[in-house]
Design goal:
single chain, alpha+beta, 9-stranded antiparallel β-sheet
Length: about 210
């Protein structure tokens, strides 16, 4: 019985050890979350005379779920707009007059939604297949029918092209030094001083 139990123990170890070795050779890859942000600006004919911002966009590439969200402002009220995610090769201009339209990212298909009576629009999309590529640059286009009206370049926080320069730290203002309090004479000291000064003075009698 002892021999049989020993043989079974060896067989069980032989089955466990290879699987453990395989697990060490192929460790699970860690997926880092990527967040890209940008502000919407007018393009086309409208972009020639206004530099106002028309909302913000954010793209999140997560391990389990990806999300694209847009917050549009100051558009035409009660109007149907369509937004979609696009990409171009690194170094290619985005959101400029005459810039290429780029490639539409199929992980986030175009989505349409109406603005409210104030011309605002909030929408988001989710995906499980999107993955950012360092060789690409992303942007969101908003269109009214076939006409593109706004564009947002998506960059990492603090990216130079996105105007996210870190603000310089201002030196702390020196604390105001407390003014020294004037020494106050002790009780009775003032009277003694006046009395001493009075002794040295002679009274001048005025002759009638």
């Amino acid at each position: 019985m002892k021999k049989i139990s020993a043989v079974l123990l060896l067989l069980s170890l032989a089955l466990v050890l290879p699987s453990a070795a395989t697990a060490k050779k192929h460790p699970a890859k860690h997926h880092k979350t990527t967040v890209l942000k940008g502000s919407f600006k007018a393009v086309g004919a409208d972009g020639a005379y206004t530099f106002k911002k028309f909302g913000k966009a954010q793209l999140v590439d997560n391990r389990k779920r990806d999300k694209l969200s847009v917050h549009l402002r100051k558009l035409a009220p009660k109007t149907l707009y369509t937004f979609a995610l696009y990409s171009v090769a690194k170094g290619t201009p985005r959101c400029r007059e005459g810039a290429t339209g780029g490639t539409q990212e199929t992980a986030f298909p175009p989505k349409s939604k109406k603005t409210n009576k104030r011309g605002n629009l909030n929408a988001k999309q989710k995906s499980k297949t999107f993955k950012t590529d360092r060789k690409k640059r992303y942007f969101v286009l908003v269109s009214d029918g076939d006409q593109v009206v706004a564009c947002a370049k998506l960059d990492r926080k603090g990216h130079r092209g996105h105007g996210g320069k870190a603000k310089p730290k201002h030196d702390k203002k020196p604390k105001h030094e407390k003014k020294p309090k004037h020494a106050q004479p002790e009780r009775g000291q003032g009277r003694e001083k006046h009395a001493a000064e009075g002794k040295g003075k002679e009274k001048v009698k005025v002759k009638p």
